[in-house]
Amino acid sequence: MSTPTPTTITLDEPIKRDGGNIETVQVRRPNSGELRGLSLAELLNSNVDPLIKLLPRITLPTLTEAEIKKLAPADLVQFGGAVINFLAPKAAMEQFQSE
User: Fold this and answer.
1) How confident is the model at residue 3 (pLDDT cuts 50, 70, 90)?
2) Most buried by CB count within 10 Å: which residue of 2, 14, 31, 92?
3) E strand segments, 16-56
């Protein structure tokens, strides 16, 4: 089974950090251990609280919860979409893409 390619998110509003702003962030598919303590249903519904907990586990550069809480809503939506794509079954994604 191949590992999906990480998704690159280009932020509408860069994150300000010492050493330079972060303008793009890679999001990779979480493994089961990284989903611990989170509700899959809430993640699939793009619930903000689980996203805030999950994103530090699967982003590169690693974003902190504080940074994620300051994201522009449009940027958070991009991250939510990436997570949903990783969690959806492969067959469902193929069917969605063929429609």
Assistant:
1) low
2) 14
3) 22-27
CA angle 7, 33, 8 (to 5 degrees): 10
Give the gyration radius of the chain's Cα atoms: 14
Q: Kindly report the backbone phi and psi dihedral angles of residue 7, in degrees, each rounded to the nearest multiple of 5, phi listed first.
A: -95, 135
- DSSP code of 71? S
pLDDT 10s digits, 9-66: 999 999 999 989 999 999 999 999 999 999 999 998 889 999 999 999 999 999 999 9
The pair of structure tokens assigned to 3 is 């590992």
